[in-house]
Specification:
By secondary structure, the chain is mainly alpha-helical. It has one domain. Helix content is 99%, strand content 0%. The protein has 1 helix and no strands. The chain is rod-shaped, with a radius of gyration of 57 Å. The relative contact order is 0.03. The model has no long low-confidence stretch (mean pLDDT 85). This is General stress protein. It comes from Oceanobacillus oncorhynchi. InterPro entries: UPF0478. It holds the Pfam family DUF948. Keywords: Membrane, Transmembrane, Transmembrane helix.
Length: 137
């Protein structure tokens, strides 16, 4: 029975040694995997920092663009208001010219009638004068 006990003890010790060897191999493999994970996380962290910096630049550029667009929009609003004012002025000027044209046309017709009457009176006076001149001769 002593042999069986020593044999069982030897098998148990060998099993423990094999288990310990596998545990050590597992620890070394785990260490290697953890180092690879650490390197990968470092690379990811570096890339995330790069992306974050790029995002900050994009945000800054966007803020600049928004400010520029706001300024140009304000200037364009002023230009549009100015163009509207010019359009209103031209429209008022056209109305004034139309009124002036109407007044000139009205006065022209009145003057034509007066001129026609003056010509008639002149012709009458000239005819009267001619008749008087012929009678005195």
């Amino acid at each position: 029975m002593g042999v069986i006990l020593y044999s069982a003890l030897a098998i148990a010790i060998i099993a423990l040694l094999i288990l310990m060897i596998y545990a050590v191999i597992l620890v070394f493999n785990t260490k290697k995997t953890m180092e690879e994970v650490r390197e990968t996380l470092g690379k990811i962290n570096h890339q995330v920092n790069g992306v974050t910096e790029d995002a900050r630049e994009v945000v800054q550029d966007s803020k600049g663009l928004v400010a520029d667009l706001t300024q140009k929009s304000t200037q364009l609003d002023g230009l549009i208001q100015g163009a509207k004012g010019i359009g209103d002025t031209v429209e008022d000027f056209n109305k004034s010219l139309q009124q002036l044209s109407n007044i000139i046309s009205k006065h022209s017709k009145e003057d034509q009638e007066k001129a026609a009457q003056a010509v008639k009176w002149g012709a009458s006076i000239f005819e009267y004068w001619n008749n008087r001149k012929h009678k005195s001769n």
